Amino acid sequence: MSKRRPYVRSMDGWWKKNPYFIEYMIHESTALFVAAYAFILLVGLVRLGQGEAAWSGWLDALKSPLSLTCHVVFLVAILYHTYTWFKIMPITMPPIIVGGKRVGPEVITGSGLLAALVASLVLLGLVWRLAL
Amino acid sequence: MSENLKIIEIEVLRYHPESDREPHLEVYKVPFTDDMSVLQGAQYIKDNFDGSLTFRWSCRMAICGSCGMMINGIPKLSCETFLRDYHPNRIRIEALAHFPIEKDLVVDLSGFIEKLESIQPYIIPKEPRSLEQGEYLQSPQQFNDYIQFTSCINCTLCYAACPQFGLNPDFIGPAAIALLHRYNMDSRDGAAEERMELVASEEGVFNCSAVGYCSVVCPKHVDPANAVNINKTNAAKDYFLRFLSPKGGSK
Ligand code: SF4
Ligand code: FES
Q1: Mean pLDDT, consecutive 10-residue segments, chain B of 251 residues?
Q2: Is residue A8 part of a domain?
Q3: By the 8 A CB rule, do B157 and B66 touch?
């Protein structure tokens, strides 16, 4: 009879066992903030469809201290999500060859972050002009 | 013992299938010199304290891939990890995570071997080729397409770094998918469609949630996470192509 008795270790709390996994979990959970913010904007759209009073109500709600605090929290979470998202982007893409050389991961991450920054600034600029 | 010999405490996760219900830690005080690897630390324990301590090794030069273990919780090749980098702290060595422990630091790799077989790790030519046609020619570019994925030494550190494999042991996992990708990317091979069934299966690439730690711990810079994620795109393309053309991707 076989004396083998392979021992299978539990996976409970696996993500707490390595700083890398903790960062991964934070990254994944900040996606919830991205979703929450999209939801707030969606509510705004619905309120807009319901007429002026509903729309102004939504705008007022945005100005409340609670909402402002939430927005700061969302901003931090979304910034972190953006950063870690572009950090793992190089491993998710086929190699990009420029001039016979493979583009390095730093360049890919850097370009992604730059694109996010430029897109945000353009959007901010547009909204700013509309608000004036 | 010479005076400049330092002592390091090595804590080892021991498990004996015949006498232990579960693994337990044992501490050994090991004298070491600056050129001693963690593997040599384990060998010192085996030679001087407990001959029953069981672990795998062969080349002791980061080539054979057999000496992987968790070193302070991080999957590493013990032959290229040095005791001096941990001294004066205690060092803990355990069997590679996510695999069943066979005995002490030895894990059961049979599942991994089956996965390696399942991806058809050999060149399946596009069409039969006669001797008269001569050898295959490959451009440096075609060679570059796959060479990185040939460097794998089957150390399975990437599996010990992959929580998705830990949660679902059926997941084909990083190294086997990297090897699959190696053959798919080879200009001499024509079996990418055949392998697609496995890539897109329940055990396939979509188990991966892009944690990315496998590529961090890989001692040979294979970047298995890259192979897995490129094949997610390939599988998605294949899926949609089936709607577009009557022949479509794979079956
Ligand atoms: S891909 Fe890297 S970490 Fe994984 S088995 Fe191969 S050499 Fe080891
Ligand atoms: S003993 Fe061969 S890789 Fe460490």
Answers
A1: 78 97 97 96 98 97 97 98 96 98 97 97 90 90 94 98 97 97 95 94 95 96 96 91 65 45
A2: no
A3: no
- Residue B246 gets the label, from left (phi > 0), alpha (psi -120 to 50) or beta, of alpha
| Residue B74 Cα, gap to closest chain A Cα (Å) | 8
The confidence score (pLDDT) of residue B251 equals: 45
Phi, psi of B177 (to 5 degrees): -70, -35
Domain segments of chain B as ranges? 2-107, 110-244
Type of residue found at A103:
V
Segment A32-70, tens digit of pLDDT:
999 999 999 999 999 999 999 999 999 999 999 999 999
Among candidates B74, B98, B226 on the partner chain, residue whose Cβ is nearest the Cβ of A91: B226
Query: 3-state class of B70 per DSSP?
Result: strand
Using CA atoms in the order B126, B183, B115, B62, what is the torsion angle rounded to 10 degrees? 150
Nearest CA in chain A to B165: A11
CATH topology of domain B110-244: Fumarate Reductase Iron-sulfur Protein; Chain B, domain 2 (1.10.1060)
Which CATH number applies to B2-107: 3.40.190.10, 3.10.20.30, 3.60.10.10, 3.40.1160.10? 3.10.20.30
Compute the average pLDDT of residues A121-132: 91
The residue of chain B nearest to residue A92, with distances taken between CA atoms, is B229
Range of the domain at A95: 15-131
Q: Cβ of A88: how many Cβ atoms within 10 Å?
A: 18
Would residue A59 count as lying in a domain?
Answer: yes
Tell me the C-alpha distance between B191 and B205, whole Å.
17
Give the whole-angstrom CA distance, residue B188 versus residue A121. Answer: 48
SS3 B228: helix
Task: Tell me which residue has tokens 């299966």.
Answer: B201
Question: Residue B98 Cα, ligand 2 centroid: separation in angstroms?
Answer: 20
Q: Would you say the ipTM is above 0.95?
A: no
B214 within 8 A of B161, measured Cβ to Cβ: yes
User: What total of structural domains would you count in chain A?
Assistant: 1
Facing residue for A8 by CB, picked from B100, B167, B226: B100
Q: Are the beta carbons of A18 and B17 separated by less than 8 Å?
A: no
**What's the whole-model pTM score?**
0.90
pLDDT at A132: 80
